[in-house]
């Protein structure tokens, strides 16, 4: 990987934009087989003290790098803009074409947040979708950039109270498309559950579901509630309140279906990775399915109505936390119609009023 670098102190947005244009011109003049990637802008708002950690996470997105990434680092008492622009590329060989990705880091102070749109607007590539990610909050910055934003990247597990996290996501959905990393953590579980009940011989069991237990890391209650919300929204259950707690007590709730109630339990467990550790679906007919996180994928256990049990490994089903951010960037180019209804149901599950 080769890089061209520009940097300046006490600079301006126009100077940064001009420097990016010059870097592109010089590199393309030197090698006509290189062209800039033009798919997606990613704007990231971070505390400067945590800039390195966020930069490492961005490095881990692999092939889902945004075309141009603009990282705005907020530093207390700073009054001027310092910037670094890096153009990365692999030299094409044997007549192939190469792609250039750009990353801009801008150090700024809290006083710049109200006018952040005037700083970021000249730097992003016009006419490309823009994704905004603000992992450390900075709501003033988010509000300032909403007009430029097409997709908001959030993580509902970042807030202590799922109720507040879901309310924020629902509010954002009114103006932008939302990609929720907590929702993406449920993906392998949703895929496996859907596949397990997809055979025609198994579909009648969906109407017999009597209980759902979701095992999750204590800090990932939002992820667990979103999985429960997905089930409720897809199966047309009427959600009731579930209180997310800590300690040994299991948060419980109920979701109503026609003439029956489905028992929902959230079970905090000890695990290093954020997200879910397992899920069990039980049916009145005697069938039960359990999925649990295991090395290399998910461990599936079925208890059949006949009393027989079967255990197998679902290889590669769990993507792991390392790929979540990259998947979030990829999802910015897609549209998932199931998130909104699942979020609405999860909000009702989380309502402890």
**Low-pLDDT regions:** 245-249
Order of helices and strands: EHEEHEEEHEHEHEHHHEHEEEEEEEHH
- Beta-strand residue fraction: 25-35%
For the report, how would you describe the main beta sheet? Answer: 9 strands, mixed
Annotation, overall tally of beta strands: 17
Helical proportion, percent range = 25-40%
Number of helices: 11
Per CATH, the architecture of the largest domain is 2-Layer Sandwich
* pLDDT averaged over residues: 91
What is the fold-level CATH name, i.e. the topology of the largest domain? Answer: Dihydrodipicolinate Reductase, domain 2
Q: CATH superfamily name of the largest domain?
A: Dihydrodipicolinate Reductase, domain 2
Shape: elongated
Q: How many structural domains?
A: 2
Q: How would you describe this structure to a colleague?
A:
The chain has 353 residues and is an alpha/beta fold. The chain folds into two domains: 2-149; 187-350, Dihydrodipicolinate Reductase, domain 2, CATH 3.30.360.10. Helix content is 29%, strand content 31%. The chain contains eleven helices and 17 strands. It has helices spanning 13-30, 51-59, 116-120, 139-145, 162-173, 181-184, 187-196, 200-203, 221-235, 324-331, 339-350; strands spanning 2-8, 34-36, 41-47, 68-74, 82-89, 98-108, 130-133, 151-154, 177-180, 209-217, 238-239, 252-257, 260-269, 276-283, 288-294, 297-303, 309-315. Strands 1, 2, 3, 4, 5, 6, 7, 8 and 9 form a nine-stranded mixed β-sheet that branches. An eight-stranded mixed β-sheet has the order 11-12-13-10-14-15-16-17. Strand 8 (151-154), helix 5 and strand 9 (177-180) form a beta-alpha-beta unit. Helix 5 (162-173) runs antiparallel to helix 11 and helix 9 (221-235) crosses helix 11 (339-350). The chain starts with a strand and ends with a helix. Residues 245-249 have low confidence and may be disordered.
């Amino acid at each position: 990987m080769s890089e061209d670098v520009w940097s300046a102190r006490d600079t301006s947005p126009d100077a940064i934009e001009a420097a990016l244009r010059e870097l592109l011109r010089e590199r393309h003049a030197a090698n006509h087989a290189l062209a800039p990637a033009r798919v997606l802008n990613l704007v990231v708002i971070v505390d400067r003290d945590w800039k390195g950690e966020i930069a490492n996470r961005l490095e881990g997105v692999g092939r889902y790098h945004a075309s141009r990434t603009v990282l705005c680092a907020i530093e207390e008492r700073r009054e001027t803009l310092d910037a670094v622009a890096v153009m990365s590329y692999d030299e094409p060989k044997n007549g192939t074409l190469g792609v250039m990705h750009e990353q801009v880091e801008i150090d700024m102070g809290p006083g710049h947040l109200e006018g952040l749109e005037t700083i970021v607007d000249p730097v992003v590539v016009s006419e490309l979708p823009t994704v905004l990610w603000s992992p450390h909050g900075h709501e003033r910055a988010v509000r300032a950039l909403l007009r430029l934003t097409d997709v908001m990247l959030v993580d509902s597990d970042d807030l202590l109270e799922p109720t507040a996290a879901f309310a924020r996501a629902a509010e954002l959905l009114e103006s932008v498309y939302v990609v929720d990393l907590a929702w993406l953590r449920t993906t392998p579980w949703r895929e496996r559950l859907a596949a397990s009940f997809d055979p025609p011989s198994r579909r009648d069991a969906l109407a017999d579901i009597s209980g759902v237990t979701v095992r999750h890391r204590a800090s990932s209650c939002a992820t667990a509630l979103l999985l429960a919300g997905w089930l409720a929204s897809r199966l047309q259950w009427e959600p009731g309140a579930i209180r997310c707690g800590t300690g040994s007590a299991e948060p419980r709730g109920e979701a109503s279906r026609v003439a029956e109630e489905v028992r929902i339990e959230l079970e905090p467990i000890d695990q290093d990775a954020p997200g879910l550790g397992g899920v069990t679906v039980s049916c009145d007919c005697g069938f039960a399915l359990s999925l649990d996180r295991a090395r290399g994928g998910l461990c599936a256990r079925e208890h059949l109505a006949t009393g027989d049990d079967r255990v197998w490994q679902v290889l590669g089903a769990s993507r792991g936390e390392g790929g979540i951010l990259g998947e979030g960037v990829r999802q910015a180019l897609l549209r998932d119609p199931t998130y909104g209804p699942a979020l609405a149901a999860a909000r009702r599950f989380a309502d402890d009023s």
